[in-house]
Structure prediction request, 382 residues.
Amino acid sequence: MKTIALILITIFTTADAFAQQTQKADDALLLEYYQNQRFADAADYLKKIYPEPVTDLKILSGLAYTSEMAARLPEAEDYYQRIYATDTTNMAVLFNLGSINARRGNNIKAITYYKKILVRDSTNFNVLKQMATLSRASGNVIDAINYLIKANKLNPTEPDVAYDLSSFFINLKLYKKADTVVTAALKADTANMLLLLGKAQIDYRLEKFPETVAVCNQLVQTGNQTDEVINMLGNSWYNLKKYNDCITTLKQLEQSNTASETSYYYMAMSYKALHNQAMAVIYFDKAIKAAVSENANSYYGEMADSYDQLHQLKKAVNAYQKSLLYGVMPLTYYALANLYDTELKNKALALRYYKKYLNSNPPKGQQSYMAYAKRRVGELAR
Prediction:
């Protein structure tokens, strides 16, 4: 409703200005365009009625507004620039120029315009909020925090600012400061999902596990069942020694194929606490597999080859054996066999790894290696 009211105010203000200037604009047609959000048609119509050069500030304002609403941002910026050139104190124009440049991804230019507003009005909440967003996007974390602190002091109950500021405090491990910010905002909106998420994150890090469970359950009941919320809930159940609740909660992640090393670990520890060692072993194994890259065997194999070329043979053997711990590749057996055969002169181990290679079903493309391995097995077995 507020948006519609603002649009209608703009329509009638602009239409009145046009009527005073030339009496050419069709107010009813403009109203129809605005009400149906046909801003591109409105912009084209106004450009036709008021051809260049346009110098009247009210007409330029109408052209700028319709162009901006039509997402013709370069045109809108040009109109606002022309207004600003004649009136550098116009706060609304500065804000629009900042907003347009932010939408176009020109953060540096947007910040320049917003700073000009802050010079005249250092307590402008909306500008401080925008400056925090732009500073964060530009990588200026300190500036972002400072703007958020100022904005939060002006309006402690605004949820977006409160959550963003608390997130920074959480990252800096300033959990009590984060809690103060979120708690103040929650008093004004006890069911705000964003603030409740922030509260859960803070309580979890402060190891307030009963409180974490309560807030996470509230989030889940209202539809927020993200992996983060389920993890915090499950891990909190574990710390409260509610092991069955922990397993039941974290199994949701496993069922949705989003379980992680941590969730598997807490499930394994819960099974262990329940003296179900068989299931504990299964989930510890899952935790280990989740913790290790699927390519670990390949990485160790390449490392081993580098050690071999450096003639650091013991390190090469160690790396090849680690590779096998993370997954068997037939060529790893062959490489070990060849290393023991030709470099380390250990016939027994060479024979063992040649046999392992031949029994590992090497792909057809390795026929030459297979032929050599078969020949060496025959020779070494004599």
Summary: The first helix runs from residue 2 to 21. Residues 1-9, 15-21 have pLDDT under 50 and may be disordered.
